[in-house]
Design goal:
The structure is a single chain. This protein is an alpha/beta fold and about 190 residues long. It has one domain: TIM Barrel, CATH 3.20.20.70. It is built from 6 helices and 10 strands. The strands form 2 sheets. It has an 8-stranded parallel beta sheet with strand order 1-2-3-4-5-6-7-10. The chain has a two-stranded antiparallel sheet with strand order 8-9. Strand 6, helix 5 and strand 7 form a beta-alpha-beta unit. It is globular.
């Protein structure tokens, strides 16, 4: 609850709630409770990884997210109603064939939540072709450089604002969002 409040007060544009197998996993009931007072201007993101359609529907009806974030291929079989944004995850080294990229996408390393940094030169090329939300290994120290080099639409942080796996630290959340805002207008969204 504290991390959500800090993210809201710091000016996050989106807050992710992990429903995949992870130390960061929350129940739909808990996510709904701690996000109940999040202002509508801030997107509540359901972060999943290869859910079945039944698992997704339970999250959708119980949590009622604004956005579903999961791997690109998952959207081939998931039923996502209009009104819920789709943020497909594109992983470094596993990009789909062809030049077509989704309008908005999350770009990260092969392993979600691992803190691995992607190749920023490659990411910069992809960021020119769509609204990229850069993820993977971002923290207070490197996010200004990442924004300068990649020029993403947004940035996503998780382990970079934790004191231990799954334990968000308020001062790190605030400092990260401040660093994003200070880096300039190249990035439009900050997701915690």
């Amino acid at each position: 609850m504290v991390a959500v409040t800090v993210a809201v007060d710091a000016g996050a544009d989106a807050i992710g709630f992990v429903f995949a197998d992870s130390v960061r996993r929350v129940s739909t009931r808990h996510a709904a409770a701690i996000s109940a007072h999040v202002p509508r201007r801030i997107k509540r993101v359901a972060v999943m990884l290869h859910p079945t359609n039944d698992e997704w529907q339970k999250v959708r009806t119980s949590f009622q997210p604004d956005v579903l974030q999961t791997d690109l291929a998952d959207f081939d079989y998931l039923e996502v109603p209009e009104g819920i944004e789709k943020w497909p995850v594109m992983r470094e080294g596993t990009m789909p064939a062809g030049d077509q990229l989704p309008e908005i996408f999350v770009y990260e390393s092969k392993a979600s939540g691992s803190g691995q940094i992607v190749d920023w030169q490659l990411a910069a090329q992809l960021a020119k072709r769509g609204k990229m939300i850069l993820a993977g290994g971002l923290n207070i120290a490197n996010v200004p450089e990442a924004i300068r080099e990649v020029a993403p639409f947004g940035v996503d942080v998780s382990s970079g604002v934790e004191s231990a796996p799954g334990k968000k630290e308020s001062t790190k959340i605030q400092a990260f969002i401040n660093a994003v805002r200070a880096a300039g207008s190249a990035t439009e969204e900050a997701k915690v």
